[in-house]
Amino acid sequence: MDKNSMTINFNNETYIAVYNPQSGYYEVDLQAPTTTGGIYKADVEFTDLFGQEYEDSINIQILAKEQIKIETNKILMWIFDYRDLKLKDIVEAEDNYEINIDEETNAVSTINVVRKTTARTDDIVFIKKDNDFLYWGVIDNIQNTDGNKLYQYTLKYITNMFNQDIILNQDIINTEDVEEGYYRIHNKLNYNSVFDVLNGSLEAGANLQIYEINNTNAQKFKISKREDGTYKITNVNSGMVVDVQDAAFENGTNVQMWGDTDNDAQKWTFTKRDNNSYSIFLAGTNFVIDLTGGNTANGGNIEIWDYVEGSQQELWILEKLDEETIRNEGIEDYIAEQIKKNFINNIDKFVNREYLQINVKTHTKINASVSTIVDVQDGIFNLHTFMTNCTQLYNINYNFEIMDKKLILTIENKEAKKELIDVNAQPIAEYTEVFETNIVSKVVVVTANGEKYTLYLKADRTTTEDINDKDRAAGNTETVYAENLDDARQKALDTLKANAYNHSVSFKYFNRYITIGTPVTLKTKDSLILDTYISAIKLTANKFIEYTCGNVRVDFIDKLLKERKK
């Protein structure tokens, strides 16, 4: 190194500093990293006129350059075919757009386009502004008036693609292939007699017997596929699997519960028989699970025997228990299971949306049934309503993205970081509070022959026929008429659904985007502190974004005081 010289090593580059006699300092221009800001170390080596060498390290702070965002205010809408997700068109919206993200009232969005496209009802769209995603939707309607150039698109939020009534349980399955899931396994000779783990034991070696239905976990089993295509049958209570004792493959060998060892004594196959029944074979053999001597009394033993055609005691009926997925795996898994069953792997292949891919990110186990979350009538419920109720009750969120020609839906329990909003201090306009105190919470249906049917509203907006239900909502009683008792429940439901559930707070926030579902602590003009969440968003060309909040937690006395001030 030359005398009176300074070398600097910075970001894997070497620089020579030059002495400036005017300032009395050594000076050098360093090239800042192009990736990001932060604290970077520079190693300095210096040799003075006498040949003495010095070394030191100094920290240099690099400030990241803020990206310049060019706002064009253009709204672009991508349109994808609802059958195969092929891109149909990209169109620019007019300035008079109105985008509503609101699953509580299911408000529609309107987009006006000045040209005709090949879009049709049920096609999938996403909308971007300045390269930011604003909205995922489903086309509900396209309207053109008097042949004008303007086409008005009416959109609903994308989860409306699941707006379909579905069957709560398949109950007794009747398919060639047994799908994975939770089951009660009944004997053909006596439907009331089912697989049961003796005394509900959690231990390896516990006996598998037959016993009358008592709805305990000792009688609930998960049927799942192994990698080789065979099945294992796992008890929900113990986690033990159905196993041939001592792996003795001979007539009369006892069937027990044992830890999963993935050996041949635990591998089963199902062969469909007539009248919704199955033979359960030990894989690769002629042995089937058999009810010893046809004894269907409590405690009757279960063994393996050679299959005999026509024998009833070795036939089994599989009762699907869909709701056990909620309790044992998670509500997210149950939603994914229903979407796959009804929209991806439906027996009616014409209705399948094979481009859909479901990603379950969290698993929230809830000791609840479907009927505690949504109204179920005659074993039928609306999947979309169920999904939106899960968002309100359990923070279940649905995020969409397109990747590799797949529409990927990610389901997760996700509570966003709480926002603090002071309507007096922040750029907020048109702040409105709505306090709703009167709703119909009890409906009495009177029929032509004088019979009566009564339905009650619960606080979570589901219903009950139990007058003593502790979760009943307060409100008014309404009496209505139905021709007969068979129509009474639907009449009562329709009456309760007519309740107007207004959002409690609405306001406009200047140029600030907060995602739907975000929890909010709101300080009102009267300095009340409200805990709520963003339940609806309205986007227009205006810089102010309109927000509404639902389920505001305010003491009843606060509501009454507010009413009296009006």
Structure overview:
The structure is a single chain. The protein has 566 residues and is mainly β. The chain has six domains: 5-62, no CATH class; 75-162, Beta Barrel (Thrombin, subunit H); 181-320, Trefoil (Acidic Fibroblast Growth Factor, subunit A), CATH 2.80.10.50; 329-413, no CATH class; 419-435 and 503-565, Elongation Factor Tu (Ef-tu), domain 3, CATH 2.40.30; 440-497, no CATH class. Strand 10 (124-129) and strand 11 form a beta hairpin. The longest helix has 14 residues, at 331-344. Residues 553-566 have low confidence and may be disordered.
List the helices and strands and how they pair.
Layout: E1 5-10, E2 13-20, E3 25-27, E4 38-47, E5 53-62, E6 75-80, E7 87-92, E8 99-102, E9 109-113, E10 124-129, E11 132-144, E12 151-157, E13 165-167, E14 181-187, E15 193-197, E16 208-212, E17 221-225, E18 231-235, E19 241-244, E20 253-258, E21 268-272, E22 277-282, E23 287-291, E24 300-306, E25 316-320, H1 324-328, H2 331-344, E26 356-360, E27 380-382, H3 383-394, E28 396-403, E29 406-413, E30 419-422, E31 428-433, E32 440-447, E33 452-457, E34 463-464, E35 476-482, H4 488-497, E36 505-510, E37 519-523, E38 529-539, E39 544-553, H5 556-565
